[in-house]
Model the fold of this input.
Amino acid sequence: MNPITNIKNQNRMNERELNLGYSGDLKKSWHQTYKDSAWVYIGGLSYALSEGDVIAVFSQYGEVMNINLIRDKDTGKSKGFAFLCYKDQRSTVLAVDNFNGITLHKRMIRVDHVEEYKVPKYKEDADDETKRLWEEGCAPKPIMREAEPMEVQERRIKKAKEVLLDIGDVDEELLKKIKKDKKKAKKEKRREKKREKKLKKLEKKAARDPDGDWKNKAKLIDNVVAEDDLYGENKHFDFGKKKEVEEVKHNPRPDFEKADWRDIEIWKVIREREKAEKAARGETTEAWGTEDHYVSKRYQGR
Done:
């Protein structure tokens, strides 16, 4: 069967379980068939991916104990599928439900349970790293720490107590003030770090694209140089500052060359509504008042 068809069928099974309310109940789920196996099959992998890449992706849902990426005998290149073993069997359910059908390295992968995993035959011509992986797996080894004797621990505790001398009575207001100052200093440090990160990002963008967006350049200038040093106290150079704009009470005539057709239609509807209101009140519906012709002073007396 086509692997894409298998992926779709598997996703349909999961959707059916969700609709029936079986999700989360392993006794009724189809995953129960594979309860004794912690191995999963991964197909459709990119040939450029190595064992470490697959582990890095699949370790999101549990600790990986072993992996077997199938490679060609002669060339050693990957064949595009692998078998992976988790420490906890429940991790296989999460991996199958979440990774089946995803796109990894521009390829759709198929993830499914393995009921009976067959251990590969031991080959003498395999390299040392492959042999070690077959024998020990890829799980991290536990770090064994030897506890120090009780006498050594007691001496260390006594020395710590001697160092911590009694300070005596301390003013509570002074302690509060010290705490506030520490908090302020921490906030300032955080702000400086954020500002430095922003500056680095803007500098990288400017280095990549010198003729880039003017907004990024403006941000870079605003962060590096103070506005008063760059522009002085001239109000005409207050770029980017929010100003309180007075609301226009009358209905302005839009610029028909620059305005969008929606704005023009809205303006026409508003003008028709105003004319109807004026007509209802008995006023003239003309946009302007009566025309007063200009007459020069020397002809006014005649």
